[in-house]
Structures are given as C-alpha cells and as structure tokens.
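Usage example:
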Amino acid sequence: AQSVTQLDSQVPVFEEAPVELRCNYSSSVSVYLFWYVQYPNQGLQLLLKYLSGSTLVKGINGFEAEFNKSQTSFHLRKPSVHISDTAEYFCAVAQRGDDKIIFGKGTRLHILP
Amino acid sequence: DGGITQSPKYLFRKEGQNVTLSCEQNLNHDAMYWYRQDPGQGLRLIYYSQIVNDFQKGDIAEGYSVSREKKESFPLTVTSAQKNPTAFYLCASSIGETTNTEAFFGQGTRLTVV
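Running the assembly step on the lines above writes:
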C-alpha cells in the first residue's frame, strides 16, 4: 500500500525568503503525486500535480515541485514567500490503476515578518 | 458553477446519536471520497466510491457508513459506534476511471459532539 511522509510538521520562514516543504512517498508501483494547500476552516485546493513527463512541475502562486523517483521524493519549493502563503500544505499520492488518494499529515507554513 | 457542496458547515450532535453529512457534486465525477481531519493527523480516508452502488472502506471506516445511490451524492453517516466523532470532515471527488487526476474538495463540515 502507498504511504506519504511529510518530514516537517511546521516550517517557519521569513517573508521573501525561499522555502522547501519535504515529502517522501512509498509505493510498489508507479504513482501520481499532488500538493494541496488548506487555509483555515476551508477545503483543500490543488497547488500542483505530477502525472508523468517532466519531473519539474510548476503550480499556482509561484510554487513548484520536483519528482525524484530514485529518492521517492516530491518536495515543494517557492523562491520567495509572501505573508499570504501562511497555510497548511499537504502532499498526496495515488497509485496508478487505483483511485485511492492518500495524504500526508501536513506541514504548517508560518511566514515571519 | 461546478463544484462540491458539503452541508451543513457546522453540526452539533448529542452523544449516542447518528448524524448524516451531505456531499453533492455536479462535476460528473465517478469517484468520491470522505476524509476525516484532526489536528496534526492530516487527512485520513474513511470511505471511497469509484462508481454508483459501490464503495470501499478506507483506513478508518469503523463507526461510519456511506451510500452511493446516485453519481452526484455520497452521504456519510457518523454512527453512535464512532467513539470520537468530533472532527473536520472533508468530501472530495475526482474523475476516477483509474486515470487519476486531482481530487476536488468541498468546504468541509465541522462536527462537534456535545
């Protein structure tokens, strides 16, 4: 069965600094990978997804992620964060041929002024 | 506008009572999901359905039940057997058919047992 590990439960970062949120997955077959963002008391919104092709994926709000098959990772990056990026971020994985989507425990991004 | 509607947004339940959370989508998606969210635990899969009249247990199905009589609707019943039901519940849908694109989420229902 697939699983997702988000290595940091909270990440503080100064405004305009770069950030990386880490995600590792485990699966015996090929996968689809996703990053979602959640603002307080709301549902989740898709930031970006990797289905196939180029391993560098660009998403909304200036975020990007890189799929690394050998390290089974899908880390999320942004070169310069803004106060509006304060939210919780979730990495998710789905195995090809299976509609079940499994989420990590989330990483809270705190932007410091 | 296409999307997923969860209702109600807030729900209070007395201990020992069953309660049903509504989830409706007009995206023509085949697959639908229910997740439970607790602080520090991420999203945990309760049930999912890939097609009408069929559904599978997720990782934490005990104390919950679902039905999928229509493509658009996937209600979740929290039964009195669920020992700790207070949580934020999220419904989602995706195109399905094993071509897995992203899941689209509703705004959630916050259930509180009083």
